[in-house]
Every structure is written in C-alpha cells, then in structure tokens.
Amino acid sequence: MILLFTIYRSLKVAFISLGYAISYRVKSLIGVSVTFQDFAHRWAHSVISHCNISIEVSGEEHIPEQAVFIVNHRSSADIFVLLDILPKRSVFVFKHELLNHPLIGLALRLSPYIPVDRSTPRAAAMSILKAKSMIKDGHSIIIFPEGTWSYPPHDILPFKQGSLLMASKTGIPIIPIAMVGTETVTRPDGLLIFPGTVKVKIGPAHTADSHDHDQAEIFRALMQELMNSIQ
Q1: pTM for this predicted structure
Q2: Is 33 exposed, middle or buried (0-12, 13-18, 19+ CB in 10 A)?
Q3: Measured by CB atoms within 10 angstroms of the end CB, which terminus of the chain is less buried, N or C?
Q4: Are 215 and 168 within 8 A, CB to CB?
Q5: Considering only CA atoms, which of 1, 159, 9 is closest in space to residue 93?
Q6: In this structure, are residues 158 and 216 in contact, taking their beta carbons and an 8 Å threshold?
Q7: Using one digit for the tens of pLDDT, what is the confidence trace for 181-200?
Q8: What is the 3-state secondary structure (H, E, C) of 131-162?
Q9: Peptide bond into 158 cis (omega under 30)
Q10: Do the bridges between strand 68-71 and strand 174-180 make them parallel or antiparallel, or are there none, so unpaired?
Q11: How far is CA 199 from CA 19, 110, 130, 152, 177, in A?
Q12: What architecture does CATH give domain 55-229?
C-alpha cells in the first residue's frame, strides 16, 4: 500500500510538471508576458504542497535582496525546496552535461540558468560572464559548490574551486545554506517522491577575496558548522 501511494504521488508530480511546462511554453508562444522563474516558483510550491513535504527554515533574516547562495547538495529535491524558499529572481548554476538529460535538458534550455562548461578555460570564463550579467540584471545566483550529491552522515564534501571562483567574481554577498532531509524526499537512485521534513539553515553573509583552496575550506567549514547545528 505504501508503495502504491508513493507511485501515485510520483506520477502526480510528473503530471504537475508536465502541466506547468506546457502552460509556460504555450503562453510564451502566444506572446503572453511570463517568466520562467515565476513558473518555476509556482511549480515548486505545488510539488511541495501535493507531496506533504514540510520545510522548516531558520535564518531567513539573513536573505538579502541579492546574493550568491552556496548550498550543500543531497538530492534532486534540493531544487524545488530552494525554488520555494529563495527569492524568485534566483538562477541555478548547473553542469553543462545536464543539457543533454532526456528529462530536464529541455527545461534547462528554456531557463535563464547558468551552465558551467569546464572543457576549456574560455568556456568557463563565459559562464562567469553570464553570472555577472545576471547579477547586473538584479538576479541572485544559487551554486552547489560540492559539484555532486553528498550523502549522510552530515558531511560536506570538498568544494570545487571553479564554483567558488564564480562566487568570488560577482562582488555580492555570499550566503551559506545547509539542508538536511531532501535525501529522504527523493533518493539518489530513483525518481520516486516521498513525504518528509526538510530542515534548512541559512547563515549570515560573507565575502570571498579569492577562490584558492584555503578560501574554499573556509566556506566548507562554515557550511559544515551550519549543518551540524541543525536539530
């Protein structure tokens, strides 16, 4: 019975996602003024409410009008949790390879999000230029500096220095965020969605003068401290 409810819940999310995708595409084609981010925000809130996912947030007072948010990465559920709690004008930084993903590649191509291509220094520099352009336009940036999913226990993996390079070059506050519980909502090895509680702790603003190993370790330690303080 539990399995049936889980499958039903996951199919419901699939239909919700398809509905929002079609609606956004149709409105864009007929000239209705819409933004991808507004649709993404409403999609995330709908998924959370339909799947009985509870989000407990502390430190919301640390969210400024504009920032680079660095967040630990535990599952694909991180995406809709962050979309629900962070300012609408926030864009994700993602691996360029995801553009070829059969399920989410099209959505990413329609989005204002920032692909990171590490194949050449020129490609990496273009990602930084796009991030600066988005910042200039009033957007915030969301980065997963671990570069991949981390798993329980509550350990933060070493940061990719390229991600920190982008954060340090934008010239706006860097906000560390730690999350626990998304790994129980969607498992790394599947597409099923489960009800659960996600705890999010948002830290105060910091700045980065460099993107070297020592600076990366400072930010990793800050995020680890946030993670350890989640009850």
Answers
A1: 0.89
A2: exposed
A3: N
A4: yes
A5: 159
A6: yes
A7: 999 998 766 678 889 999 99
A8: HHHHHHCCCEEEECCCCCCCCCCCCCCCCCHH
A9: no
A10: parallel
A11: 28, 30, 31, 14, 11
A12: 3-Layer(aba) Sandwich (3.40)
